Amino acid sequence: YRLPIRYPELKARVARFRAACADPRRSYRADADALYRLLLKPAEKLFAGKRHLLICPDDVLWEVPFQALSMRGTPLVARFNLSYAYSAT
């Protein structure tokens, strides 16, 4: 799936999300929901009924803590076992 976002905006969103996750005084939930919708929602049907997701991020996506992304209000880590692998690019 192609991401409908330009690289500088994606990079800024990822940085904002990581900063919110690292600061207990800030809420990260809105960013977790937004990044889930952007990055994983288009492929959601492909992992319906699955228990394990293999994430192969590239570039700035290595900085995304995918386990904290929110799928209908529930963190991904509560729904799936997550593993990471290097992307082919």
Rg is 13 Å
Give start-end ranges of low-pLDDT stretches.
Answer: none
How would the global form be characterised?
globular
Average residue-wise pLDDT: 93
Q: What's the helix count? A: 3
Terminal CA distance reads 15 Å
Percent helix range: 25-40%
The largest sheet, given as strand count, sense and whether it forms a barrel, is: 2 strands, parallel
Give the number of DSSP strands. 4
Name the helix and strand elements from N-terminus to C-terminus, one letter apiece: HHEEEHE
Residue fraction in strands: 5-15%
Broad structural category = alpha+beta
Widest beta sheet: strand line-up: 1-4
Explained architecture:
The protein has 89 residues and is of the alpha+beta class. Helix content is 35%, strand content 13%. The longest helix has 16 residues, at 7-22. The protein is globular and about 35 Å long. The model has no long low-confidence stretch (mean pLDDT 93).
